[in-house]
Amino acid sequence: MRVDDDGLQGLMTAALDGDAAAYASLLRGLVPLLRGFYRRRLRGADDDIEDLVQETLMAVHTRRSTYDRDRPFGCWLFAIARYKMVDRLRRGARLQSLDGGEDEIATDGFEDSVAARIDVEDLLATLSAKQSRVIRATRILGYSVAETAQADGIGESDVKVSVHRGLKALMARVQGGRR
């Protein structure tokens, strides 16, 4: 199942409208996203990561009525995930932040990170649909090359080449914009 922010937002909206199948798909799609999110930010046992994933899924379930349909789903989801991570770190669990600054994760730079996300989305929109999709999957959402290839129905080498060429094009655009 290929997961992107628009797809998640559509599933969440359908779920809020009472579609149980969409809600089940949404929750299944969130599991690998949350695992990747926590693994990139924390050191700890897989059990601890899985606990955080489950806590976040429960929070999504209990707080789903607070979701604003007019806002990106990913921002809402990852705000919940950040708060769950900080709560866990403050409780002194076996997890350790990779950068050692759990308070910074929740508060410092939130507006900057939202602006950066918008900038990234604008840059990705300048690429071909395939390049944008595979860069988002492998570099932002944390999927492996194999998972991305399978979800997109293309070969792993095609994913690697598309990511490489897309990142090269993005780098040229960014460097060209600074001159």
Short description:
The chain is mostly helical and 179 residues long. Helices cover 74% and strands 2% of the residues. It is globular, with a radius of gyration of 17 Å.
Helices and strands in order:
Layout: H1 5-16, H2 20-41, E1 42-43, H3 46-63, H4 73-90, E2 96-97, H5 102-106, H6 110-124, H7 129-140, H8 145-152, H9 156-178
Antiparallel strand pairs: 1-2
**What form results from the Cα inertia axes?**
globular
Order of helices and strands: HHEHHEHHHHH
Let me know the largest β-sheet: 2 strands, antiparallel
Helix fraction by DSSP (H/I, runs of at least 4): over 70%
> What is the gyration radius calculated from CA atoms?
17 Å
Number of helices: 9
Distance between the termini: 41 Å
Number of strands: 2
Architecture overview:
Helix 2 packs across helix 3 (46-63), helix 7 (129-140) crosses helix 9 and helix 8 packs across helix 9 (156-178). With 179 residues, the protein is an all-alpha fold. It is globular, with a radius of gyration of 17 Å. The model is unreliable at 101-110 (pLDDT under 50). It has a two-stranded antiparallel sheet with strand order 1-2. The N and C termini lie far apart (41 Å). It is built from nine helices and two strands; from the N terminus they run H-H-E-H-H-E-H-H-H-H-H. Helix content is 74%, strand content 2%.
Overview features:
mainly alpha; two-stranded antiparallel sheet; 179 residues; 9 helices; single chain
